Amino acid sequence: MQGTHDDDIVESDVELEISDLIEAEKDPPQKMGNPLIEVTDENKKAAQISKAKANEAISDGKFSEAIDYLTEAIMLNPMSAIMYANRASVFIKLKKPSAAIRDGNAALQINPDSAKGHKARGIALAMLGSWEDAVDDLHVAAKLDFDEEIDSTLKKVETNAKRMKEHRIKYDRLREEKKLREIDQKKKKREDAESASVLKDGEVIRIRSASELEKKLNAASKIGRLTILCFTAPSCGPLSVISTLATQYPKAVFLKVDIEEVKEATGEWDITMVPCFSFVKNGKEVDKVVGVDKTSLEKKIAQYS
C-alpha cells in the first residue's frame, strides 16, 4: 500500500498480502430487476427454470451463459435474494467483483440474512482489497451458514484487515492529535494577540493600580516579553531615559509605576529607593537596577530579551 501525506503526517506503507488483488472491471452495470413489478406464480416457475439452466451452465464451466440465465430469472422474479446472490457468485468466477458487489447489495437489501449474499460480497470486496469490509461480510456469512470457502477466504484476508485497521487507528489518532495541536496553536495565537493588544510596542505604559499592573504583567508573560518595571515617584522627575529605551527596544514592555499612586507595589516588589528598575521574565523578577544608568539598563535588557 502506498504511503500518503497529510501536511506533517506521512503515512507509512502497510505490509499486505496482495497477490490475489485485481482491478475493478470497467463493464457497464448489469441488468437489475424491477422491484415494483408484480411477481406471478408463473413468473416464479419460469425463474426457477432459468435458475436450473444456469446451474447446468455453471457445471459445464459456461459462466457467461449462466449469467444470462440468472439475469432472466432476476427479471422474472426481482424479489428473490438467492437469484442475485447466485449471479454474484458467478460474477466472482468471471473476476468481475464490482458486478458481484452490486448483486450482493441487491440480495442483502431483499434479505439482510442472506448468507450467500454476504459471502459473495465479502469475497468480491477481498478481490478489490477492501479488507475490513470483506472480513465483516465474511464473518456474518460464516455465522449464518459456515462453509470451507468462507473459512479459507477469511484466513487470507483477516491478517490484511487487522493490519489495515491498526494502521487506520494509528493515523486517525495522529491526525486527531494534530488537529488538537492546531486548535491549541490557534487559541494561543488568539490569546497572544489579545495580550499584545493591551501592550504598546515602543511606548511607556503608565500603571495606575495594582490590578492593572497584574494584568499587564500577565499579558507580557503569556507572549514571553521581557518587562521592565520602572518604579518612580514625583520627586524623580520625568525620567526621559525610559521613553528612549522603550523606543530603542520596542519588544520589551516598559511599565511606569508611581509608588505614591500604587502603594502596594513598594512592599510587593521590595522597593527601598527610586528610581528603581525591576526586570521581569515569565512573571518572575530576574534582576534589579537602582538608579538611572542607561548603559547598565541597556545591558540588562540585552541580557534578558
Automatic annotation (TrEMBL):
CDD domains: TRX_family. One of its GO terms (molecular function) is Hsp70 protein binding. Gene3D superfamilies: Glutaredoxin, Tetratricopeptide repeat domain. Keywords: Coiled coil, Repeat, TPR repeat. One of its GO terms (cellular component) is histone deacetylase complex. The keyword Ribonucleoprotein does not apply. This is Thioredoxin domain-containing protein. One of its GO terms (biological process) is response to stress. It holds the Pfam family Thioredoxin. InterPro entries: Thioredoxin-like_sf, Thioredoxin_domain, TPR-like_helical_dom_sf, TPR_rpt. Residues 157-196 form a coiled coil. Residues 225-302 form the Thioredoxin domain.
